[in-house]
Fold:
Amino acid sequence: MTITTLIITFIFGSIIGSFLNVVIYRLNTNLSISKGHSKCFSCGRALGPKDLVPILSYLLFRGRCRTCKSKISVQYPLVEIFTGLMFVFVTYFYFFDNDIFIGNNIFNKGVIFSVLTQMSFFKYIFFVFDLSLLSLLICIFVYDFRHKIIPDSLVYTGVILMFVKIVISLIIFKIGWFGTIAVLLAGPIVALPFALFWLVSGGRWMGLGDAKLALIVGWGLGISYGYTALMYSFWIGAISIIGLTLIREMFDAFSTPNNALGIKIRFLHNKKLQYFARRLPSFKLRSEIPFGPFIIVAFYMIYFLGKNLLWWL
Structure:
């Protein structure tokens, strides 16, 4: 039963991922998100049912349009697969894990268990909130990665969703005035450093969209766990950027025998590997770096693990 449920969840999540691709591509354009048929960007043909089956259509037609044979972005299947997997993880932790799970560790587990045992429907409400927020954050992740900007329409919707979830939690878990104030202030307190970075630098160090995204992190995880997520986001960002830069430099340096060391590495002459290396993001000293994806990855690390800073020590 568990495997069947998770498979169905993955299929449902991949369908949602297909819709998220539409949102990502049509956002801030003259195209309506809710109206109009999807079309091939090259030949303009309206896509039929065969073209719109998540993941399978891309594999069946080898990543190309059936009519003009132009290449289709690998973003489509990646978003569909990733959304399906994340839906599976959230569903598993909510309903099949041994521990009680509502997506944060702000509230006492004993209180959560007691309340949700008597009013189990609230768990389904939290579940829907978290899947909705997940969908928004996936859109933000991809959009920020592609365009280096976090759309206000997405991040404000995510902030509202998380705030409503926190308010519902405060009402049903009743943690007292001091705890309530601490939880409500968690969002602004966690977002404050990013807001200051933006203010002091005039937007050169950090975009204001990252501060808005940090509101979600603060209200979702609390002050302590929220700052842990922000610390992880800087670490993940540094490791990713340095790693990608080293890979590109290695391919550039040793893809021909005319390098400084006079060494020719056959492995690096593989055309597919070189094509992959050329498509890796290139970062320079003054490059504009999308930081939203790193915040989102760190947020879900703490969301699922529920561990605080340096928990492995």
